[in-house]
Specification:
By secondary structure, the chain is α+β, with helices and mostly antiparallel strands. It starts with a strand and ends in a 13-residue tail after the last helix.
Length: 393
């Protein structure tokens, strides 16, 4: 095996997973991150079954499961008419499987441990500027020029300076916060639960597990709103906001008691787009640097993990890993990008007819066999093989 010198731009989920997999394969891996100490951004997420399989290959699966919370169902109710408009269960014939809800900081910690234990080197305080091709690739940061490298992996996320992706901003975003899981609540600790007012407002609760093994249980609460309202969020009157949320979902009150300032909720904006060619000579884009979508299907972390595995396989199987990586991921990415584009306006938009179509047509159809099984596979991440022409765990 040829040992490669590989630079990874970005210590996010995809970057650290790629670092762990490539370092475990014997390559010399350096991870560059702009923060003085690498850290995560955001609250909670769900690792679907396909993503959990990649965590196992990274050497981080057991540690992630020890901190995360199993999620066996996703449910949602439209409050105006009391209709169930989202109902997906993970279990399938032959044995149960589940999503794994986890705080980004907890997932970041176990992936960072896996990457460093595998031999990857983390280089902090390095803001990526460019990756010029001069025979091999170099990595230019705000403090130095690094290299040369046989391969540069762009895992720098939606703001990557290395990616040519021009994504379309989505009209709806959200605010998120991490809160303690209230004692005595009758909320299901194994379900993502949401409430909607048509598609213009959405409140949600996601159990998160723990930040550390003996820490208290946590939850992520989130509130959907138009991106035009996000600039005014820092001046939001919290009492007025809580009144609006509790009008939609009164039972959410115990989850809001520890929130006293708008600064405790993090605004999030989303965009949609996919690179037709997620590679160039000695350069590969993964995760949000290659494709971006709404979080409606809960696939963001999964897609980054699958990209990391596809790239590691491509490096092992080809002297020119970029095209191999792209072929392996092409159809799975296209399918989930298309599904996200179709589903998102039904749950986050100003439309009045889309949520009506969702409630009166799609939801009844979703109860008819074999649609429940199809939805389970869609959410689990394996509606089609995640890695084309490649065996998946």
């Amino acid at each position: 095996m040829q040992v490669l010198s590989i630079a990874i731009a970005g210590a996010g989920i995809g970057g650290l997973a790629a670092a762990a997999l490539l370092a475990r394969a014997g390559h010399r891996v350096q991870v560059f991150d702009q923060f003085a100490a690498p850290r995560p951004v955001g609250s909670g997420l769900v690792i679907q079954p396909v993503g959990q399989a990649v965590l196992d290959l990274c050497g981080a699966g057991a540690a992630a499961r020890a901190l995360g919370q199993p999620i066996t169902a996703m449910t949602g109710i439209e409050v105006e008419h009391g209709r169930t408009v989202l109902s997906v269960a993970y279990d399938r014939p032959g044995g149960p499987r589940h999503g794994l809800a986890i705080h980004r900081a907890a997932l970041f910690g176990v992936l960072l441990d896996a990457a460093t234990q595998a031999g990857a080197t983390i280089i902090p305080s390095a803001r990526i500027l460019a990756a010029p091709l001069e025979g091999k690739r170099w990595l230019v940061t705000d403090t130095a020029r690094h290299g040369p490298f046989d391969l540069v992996v762009d895992a720098a996320g939606a703001g990557s300076p290395l990616s040519p992706l021009k994504a379309r901003p989505l009209p709806y975003g959200a605010v998120w916060a991490t809160v303690p899981w209230p004692e005595g609540t009758d909320f299901n600790p194994n379900a993502l639960q949401q409430r909607y007012l048509r598609a213009s407002r959405m409140a949600g609760v996601l159990p998160l597990g723990r930040m550390v093994t003996d820490g208290p249980p946590l939850a992520a609460v989130f509130w959907s709103l138009p991106v035009t309202a996000l600039p005014d969020w820092p001046t939001q009157d919290m009492d007025a906001w809580k009144d609006e949320v509790l009008t939609l979902w009164p039972a959410l009150a115990p989850f809001l008691t520890t929130l006293h300032s708008s600064s405790e909720l993090t605004p999030a904006r989303y965009s949609h787009g996919t690179l037709a060619k997620p590679y160039a000579e000695r350069l590969v884009h993964i995760g949000d640097a290659a494709h971006r979508a709404s979080p409606q299907l809960g696939q963001g972390a999964n897609m980054a993990l699958l990209d990391a595995l596809a790239l590691a396989n491509a490096v092992a199987e080809s002297d020119d890993p970029g095209p191999h990586y792209a072929r392996t991921r092409r159809w799975h990415v296209r399918l989930y990008q298309g599904m996200s584009a179709a589903f998102t306006p039904q749950y986050q938009s100003d439309s009045r007819w889309l949520p009506a179509f969702r409630d009166r047509v799609l939801m009844p159809v979703s109860r008819l066999p074999p649609v429940p099984s199809i939805l389970t596979h869609l959410v689990a991440g394996d509606l089609i093989p995640p890695l084309a022409s490649t065996a998946f765990p």
